[in-house]
User: Which sequence fits this backbone?
């Protein structure tokens, strides 16, 4: 790129602020039109950029198409946050006091004991440090995994640009100013730009302007397109004028202080305790540029990361925490009261400083009981299990965008799936055709077709399709041709090629710039039409159309006959074609497409042509798309994927109902559904078309009624000729239905722009990674990178595995909670001391919370998971089987510990540890060792939660479990043998170790006896955590937070409304300050009129249009100003 009169960054940013006619006029006045702008940008309208060095130079001058996210938290930040736990802070304070008192002379203790007294306080500090470091390490690793996931999403997202005269896919972040982008239906615009040429282009700009209506674009209407907006209809060419931080969305990000450039972010941060919406967050969007949460799908209902499972776990944790707090307080109270009564009342001794040391020791024991009782490892286990599953699911072609979807998928009871590409291969071929009045069941010979018919076939197929759709012949004989673009159009192009005809020559003769009007395909039209000038020197226009046979045939008044000449198409003939041709093809699983045309001529009109008597209004579709002449009907084969029938059988065996929701013909859909196994002729099922479905679910006033939907959905298996609205209504009806006891959990697949509402409404939305539009991907929870139904089944398996992994950890942890808390409390009541010392319980807490979470939450899924029914929404988190295991193993461990406590000194002929609080003893070391080893062996029992006897099954397939278990055993041996005063232990003899091992192995044998107790005989009151819960943000995970300026207040209470209002005011103040102060050249904005005049940045906060007079509505300033009074 040569230095000269090329456009500057500031000039282009100012240009992109113009809208509508104003923008068109600005480009005309300043550059002489779009061609002049391209000349100033040193780019070719047809060939795009051609030089790699030039592209790099542009990247240096105009910037990269990337907005850096906030830097990740450092390890030390995570460690600092881990130390903010209240119980740890109290424990630190108690340890400080204990350490300080250890240096105070105590006449009642020997010199040896007093010299070692500091070790307990120091050891508690070390234990706390270990707990903090492990927690910080887990959180840091988790964040790193999420960042890696986001990087993978960026790598997946590409966009079509023209370089060196060829269309090619490049990474979104590699797009530079001057690139020529080919935009089409369903795309997410990757950068700001100006339209060079477009066909029926309509954009959804609500993510930036707040306007919900689609905006029509055109060279005489509005030529500005903005990054982050969605292409809802049409196609076109766009020259890129601003990328990354210089685009309109980048400007908004910087004004919000969310971009990395804004250094003042930390200084201006508004601290709002307990409110997640106070600070708008930014995350890299799917397309590689930063997307503000709340834009697009987030503003339309997508909440922060949430998990029904964690909602139940959090409620359970709170209940356990309350119980643990009560026990901890009682433990401290009992210890202090007994000590005080015995020493000050019975022995009549005076209070001394040494008594404070004992009191602090009691507080430390109580706080440690609380640390044990509060199951803070539960949220960690959820996050670890989800993060592990997300990483593994990538290999199974599931790209998870929202964490909660992983777990929710395990509870899925229904899947509403597309047909094309998901159940079928999406490799389409024309295998039947109806031409010149004959039904060809194989490829016709080109020479047998009349010349007029030949000409119209080539025109209808070559011109009336996206020019980016191509079929490239294989270089190797016998291999399939490569299909690029829309697969249906590829099948039609292949139909021409197989008859020895090409399409490139005609496209070169009629380039896209010469197309007069394009009516792009959408779910309402169910057809695509293109208007061109009449060939052969005739004055007029030709409309070429293709679409669903039953739709387009009813718009035809003529048909090309055996000699290639048009004939009248009577109503009787239409019915004949629909029944004997269309239905015949559809019953064999073929998709039928009708090809038609209509000529508009100025003179000498034939009977099937339209005379032009006045200028044609091309926007009047109803008048244009009528009186067509049918050219052909073709039957396109899309074979069922060979693995799909088995996958659907697995779903049905797993208690999941699969429904097909497709836009195809009813007979085609029924045939494919039978091949897949979705419908069984021997079973009760319902197959409906969209219009019939709509009629059945609405009352006489046209309103959808839930009770009417409830009569249909249980047996409905195929919904054909459905619109996206039909899909949304079905999904909503199933989710909100109360017919099922456990409530339905629905997963939905989608690939089109209009599938967004259904994908958002579904409990889990799957978008197609190959055929799916960017809009569908943005609305989804999981992206299927291979578009294959079997990947959904794998997602079900992983989801169920997540639920089971958490249940395993919960079963293990609650057993430890029960035993440790009761041992400490009973010890305090009976012997004025806890058999388990504070440092020992911290070690148990480390095993229980962090290490066990890693070991049990990373189990790999098994095929057996698909052999049981889904849990559903209201499944209790602790089943009777689990409660039986918790209580059974808890009783065994308590019996062993209490026998050792009260009779262990006599059984093993050792000195009793009761009454000797200041020195370690073999007696209490034995109790500690047996308890820890029983806990470790119980980890094997916890691996099974459905009553399985073989607790060692496939344990070798989880190397992390084996490593952690062996490491814990090794560390326990070291702690006991060399721990000394630090861990309050003394060395045990070999015989004592054998007895410890005996009691521990007894856990496994006892577990087999517990399994034999029938769970169904136990009372249902033993189940815990049943019923619906409020979905909550995932703890420990920083979610994408919604923009509070674009979301309504969900909490309508007085407190909720007040907090919501305060947060809106605070955020607006920050925006006004950003406007007023500007941003410095050292990494921020400098003051410029561009920021004062920007329409979009204010509209993004107000959700309003600019005022009619072209000025700016400053009403958004009023609320912050009133806040200062």
Assistant:
């Amino acid at each position: 790129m040569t230095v000269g009169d090329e456009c500057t960054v500031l000039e282009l940013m100012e240009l992109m602020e113009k809208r509508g006619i104003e923008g068109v006029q600005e480009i005309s006045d300043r550059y002489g039109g779009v061609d002049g702008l391209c000349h100033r940008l040193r780019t070719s309208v047809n060939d795009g950029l051609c030089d790699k060095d030039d592209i790099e130079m542009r990247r240096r001058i105009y910037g990269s198409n990337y907005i850096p996210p906030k830097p990740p938290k450092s390890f030390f930040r995570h460690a600092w946050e881990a130390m903010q736990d209240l119980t740890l802070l109290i424990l630190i304070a108690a340890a400080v006091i204990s350490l300080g008192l250890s240096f105070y002379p105590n006449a009642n203790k020997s010199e040896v004991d007093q010299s070692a007294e500091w070790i307990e306080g120091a050891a508690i500090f070390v234990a706390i440090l270990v707990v903090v470091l492990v927690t910080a390490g887990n959180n840091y690793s988790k964040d790193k995994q999420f960042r890696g996931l986001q990087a993978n999403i960026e790598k997946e997202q590409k966009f079509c640009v023209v370089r060196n005269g060829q269309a090619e896919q490049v990474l979104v972040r590699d797009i530079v100013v001057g690139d020529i982008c080919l935009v089409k239906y369903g795309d997410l615009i990757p950068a700001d730009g100006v339209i060079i040429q477009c066909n029926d282009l309509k954009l959804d700009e609500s993510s930036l302007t707040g306007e919900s209506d689609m905006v029509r674009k055109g060279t005489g209407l509005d030529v500005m397109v903005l990054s982050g907006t969605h292409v809802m209809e049409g196609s076109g060419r766009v020259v890129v004028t601003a990328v990354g931080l210089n685009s309109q969305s980048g400007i908004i990000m910087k004004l919000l202080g969310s971009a990395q450039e804004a250094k003042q972010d930390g200084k201006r941060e508004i601290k709002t305790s307990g409110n997640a919406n106070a600070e708008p967050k930014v995350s890299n969007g799917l397309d590689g540029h930063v997307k503000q949460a709340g834009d697009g799908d987030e503003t339309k209902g997508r909440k922060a990361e949430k998990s029904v499972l964690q909602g139940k776990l959090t409620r359970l944790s709170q209940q356990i925490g309350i119980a643990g707090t009560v026990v901890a307080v009682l433990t401290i109270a009992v210890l202090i009261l007994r000590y005080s009564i015995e020493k000050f009342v019975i022995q009549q001794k005076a209070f001394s400083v040494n008594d404070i040391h004992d009191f602090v020791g009691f507080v430390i024991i109580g706080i440690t009981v609380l640390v044990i009782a509060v199951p803070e490892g539960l949220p960690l286990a959820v996050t670890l299990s989800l993060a592990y599953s997300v990483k593994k699911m990538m290999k199974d072609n599931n790209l998870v965008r929202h964490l909660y979807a992983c777990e929710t998928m395990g509870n899925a009871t229904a899947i509403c799936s597309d047909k094309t590409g998901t159940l079928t291969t999406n490799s389409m071929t024309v295998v039947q055709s109806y031409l010149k009045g004959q039904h060809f069941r194989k490829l016709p010979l080109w020479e047998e077709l009349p010349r007029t018919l030949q000409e119209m076939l080539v025109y209808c197929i070559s011109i009336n399709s996206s020019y980016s759709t191509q079929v490239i012949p294989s270089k190797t004989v016998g291999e399939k041709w490569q299909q690029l673009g829309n697969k249906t159009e590829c099948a039609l192009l292949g139909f021409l090629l197989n008859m020895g005809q090409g399409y490139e020559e005609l496209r070169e003769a009629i380039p896209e710039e010469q197309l007069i009007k394009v009516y792009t395909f959408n779910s309402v039209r169910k057809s695509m039409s293109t208007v061109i000038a009449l060939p052969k020197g005739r004055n007029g226009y030709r409309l070429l159309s293709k679409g669903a046979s039953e739709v387009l045939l009813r718009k035809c008044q003529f048909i090309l006959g055996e000699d290639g000449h048009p004939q009248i198409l009577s109503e009787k003939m239409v019915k004949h074609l629909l029944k004997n041709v269309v239905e015949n093809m559809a019953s064999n699983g073929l998709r039928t497409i009708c090809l038609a045309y209509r000529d508009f001529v100025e003179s000498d009109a034939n009977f099937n042509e339209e005379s032009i008597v006045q200028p044609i209004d091309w926007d009047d579709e109803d008048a244009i798309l009528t009186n067509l002449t049918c050219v052909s009907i073709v039957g396109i084969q899309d074979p069922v994927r060979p693995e799909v029938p088995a996958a659907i059988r697995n779903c049905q065996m797993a208690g999941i109902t699969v429904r097909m929701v497709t836009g195809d013909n009813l007979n085609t859909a029924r045939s494919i559904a039978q091949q897949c196994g979705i419908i069984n002729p021997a079973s009760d099922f319902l197959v409906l078309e969209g219009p019939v479905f709509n009629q059945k679910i609405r009352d006489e006033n046209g309103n959808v009624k839930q009770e009417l939907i409830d009569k249909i959905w249980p047996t409905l298996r195929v919904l054909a000729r459905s619109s996206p609205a039909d899909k949304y209504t079905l999904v909503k009806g199933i989710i909100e239905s109360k017919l099922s006891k456990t409530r339905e959990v629905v997963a939905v697949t989608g690939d089109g722009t209009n599938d967004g509402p259904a994908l958002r409404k579904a409990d889990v939305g799957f978008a197609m990674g190959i055929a799916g539009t960017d809009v569908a991907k943005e609305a989804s929870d999981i992206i299927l990178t291979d578009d294959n139904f079997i990947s959904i089944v794998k997602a079900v398996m992983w989801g169920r595995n997540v639920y089971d992994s958490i249940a395993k950890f919960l079963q293990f942890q609650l057993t430890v909670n029960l035993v440790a808390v009761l041992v400490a409390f009973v010890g305090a009541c009976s012997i004025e001391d806890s058999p388990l010392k504070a440092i020992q319980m911290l070690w148990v807490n480390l095993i229980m919370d962090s290490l066990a979470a890693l070991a049990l939450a990373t189990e790999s899924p098994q095929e057996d998971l698909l052999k049981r029914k889904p849990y559903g929404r209201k499944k209790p988190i602790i089943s009777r089987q689990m409660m039986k295991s918790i209580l059974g193993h808890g009783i065994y461990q308590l019996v062993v510990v209490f026998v050792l406590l009260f009779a262990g000194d006599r059984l093993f002929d050792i000195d009793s540890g009761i009454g000797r609080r200041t020195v370690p003893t073999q007696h209490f070391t034995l109790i500690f060792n047996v308890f820890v080893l029983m806990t470790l062996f119980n980890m094997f029992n916890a691996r099974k939660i459905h009553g399985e006897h073989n607790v060692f099954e496939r344990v070798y397939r989880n190397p992390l479990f084996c490593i952690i278990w062996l490491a814990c055993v090794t560390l326990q041996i070291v702690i006991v043998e060399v721990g000394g005063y630090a861990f309050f232990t003394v060395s045990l003899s070999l015989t004592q170790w054998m007895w410890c091992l005996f009691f521990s192995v007894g856990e496994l044998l006892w577990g087999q006896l517990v399994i034999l107790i029938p769970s169904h005989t136990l009372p249902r009151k033993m189940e815990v955590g049943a019923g619906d819960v409020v979905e909550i943000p995932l703890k420990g995970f920083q979610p994408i937070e919604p923009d509070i300026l674009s979301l309504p207040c969900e909490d309508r209470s007085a407190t909720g409304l007040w907090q919501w209002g305060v947060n809106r005011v605070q955020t607006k103040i920050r925006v006004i300050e950003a406007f007023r102060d500007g941003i410095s050249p050292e990494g921020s904005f400098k003051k410029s009129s561009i920021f004062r005049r920007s329409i979009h940045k204010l509209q993004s906060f107000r959700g309003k249009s600019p005022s009619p007079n072209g000025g700016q509505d400053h009403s958004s300033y009023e609320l912050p100003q009133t806040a200062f009074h």
